[in-house]
Amino acid sequence: MTSTGAPTGDLDFLLGEWEGEGEGLWGDFRYAEQTTFSSAGASWLGYNQLTTGPTGRSSHAECGYLAIDEDGTVVMTLAEPTGITEVLTGRLTDGGVVLGSTEIGHAPTAGNVTATARRFTRTAEGLLVEVDIATDNEALVPHTRSLLRRR
User: Fold this and answer.
1) What is the reported pLDDT for 88?
2) What is the pLDDT of residue 3?
3) Cβ distance 117 to 131 under 8 Å?
4) Angstrom distance (rounded) from CA 69 to CA 90
5) How far apart are CA 118 and CA 49, in angstroms?
6) 31 touches 51 (CB < 8 A)
7) Which positions ≥6 away from 63 have C-beta within 8 Å?
8) Considering only Cβ atoms within 10 Å of each terminal Cβ, which end of the chain, N or C, has fewer?
9) Domain spans of the chain, in order of start
10) How many helices and strands in the chain, by DSSP H and E?
11) Phi, psi for residue 101 in degrees, rounded to 5
């Protein structure tokens, strides 16, 4: 990806503040999610996500960037406070964006996540966000799914 990159127009459907409910598919849990995709007029979108549990206490967060390269490849980079970083690449689809990890970084205390996949899909109800995770070099399994609506 170049520093100038391609325009983000095809990703503009993500822009804004989103919120909604989610469910854990790997372990049974519920959560509230707030996600923001923002633009400063650059060739990338900023990404911030915060998850809270039933008591309102923060349970997960991540931040990063999303861009489209000149060849149409979508690239997402993100960091989590647990010490995991992800680089994902993928493509636009008729319904949204599909991404798979190419790099996973770990702080010494981070869990052993070895691969991830993410899908951001436009639906009539809003934005469906699905995350798959693999640990210890096992196969990807569904981890979370949330349905978000624009605030």
Assistant:
1) 98
2) 40
3) yes
4) 10
5) 13
6) yes
7) 46, 47, 48, 49, 78, 79
8) C
9) 9-150
10) 0, 10
11) -70, 145
Angle, CA of 147, 120 and 148, to the nearest 5°: 20
Structural contact between residues 23 and 30, judged by C-beta atoms closer than 8 angstroms: yes
Give me Rg for the CA atoms of the chain.
Answer: 15
Q: 13-51: buried (b, 16+ CB within 10 Å) or exposed (e) per residue?
A: ebeeebbbebeebeeeeebbbbbbbeeeeebbbebebbb
Backbone angles phi, psi at 125, to 5 degrees: -85, -20
pLDDT of residue 5: 58
CA angle at residue 29 from 123 to 131, to 5 degrees? 45
DSSP string, 114-147: EEEEEEEEE-SSSEEEEEEEEETT---EEEEEEE
Q: Along the 151 residues of the chain, how does pLDDT read in single tens digits? A: 444 456 788 999 999 999 999 999 988 899 999 999 999 788 899 999 999 999 999 999 999 999 999 899 999 999 999 999 999 999 999 999 999 999 999 999 899 999 999 999 999 999 999 999 999 999 999 999 999 999 9
Q: What is the CATH number of domain 9-150?
A: 2.40.128.20
